[in-house]
């Protein structure tokens, strides 16, 4: 590798090599910032890889690349909230309301709090189901 190391995901093997080089330089008296500058890697990135652990004891499995995916979605609708939206849309009193009015009605009744687009997404059929018949199907009739 040549040039600055930024903007690319690195393999665990390369990360381990960089961490070991930086810690060896530190043990010989060089500051981490200076050794990272020589290696052309951001010092914050190296510190994030180490995360307060012993750098000499880090294995490749500790440095494996983990994409930034949310583990918790706190604003996702629960099954009960989805069911409440569908149940409300099927009642006679609310059946003829558009999704925007239905959303605000449900929030005023303290049943479901979501955006109108979420209500529309819940009430629409899945994308795999066509909303209308295709021209081919109509011509065959």
Written description of the protein model:
Among the domains are: about 10-55; about 80-125, no CATH class. The protein has helices at about 10-25, 30-40, 45-50, 80-90, 100-110, 115-125, 135-140. Helix 1 packs across helix 2 (about 30-40) and helix 5 crosses helix 6. With about 140 residues, it is mainly α.
List the keywords.
141 residues, mainly alpha, 7 helices, 48% helix, rod-shaped
Structural class assignment: mainly alpha
H and E string: HHHHHHH
> What is the alpha-carbon Rg in Å?
28 Å
How many helix segments?
7
- Stretches where pLDDT falls below 50 for ≥5 residues? none
Helix amount: 40-55%
In round numbers, the mean pLDDT is 85
Strand content: under 5%
Distance between the first and last residues' Cα: 64 Å
Shape: rod-shaped
The major pleated sheet works out as: none
Summarize the structure.
This protein is mainly alpha-helical. It contains seven helices and no strands. It has helices at 12-27, 32-39, 43-50, 79-90, 99-108, 116-123, 135-139.
Describe the SSE topology.
Blueprint: H1 12-27, H2 32-39, H3 43-50, H4 79-90, H5 99-108, H6 116-123, H7 135-139
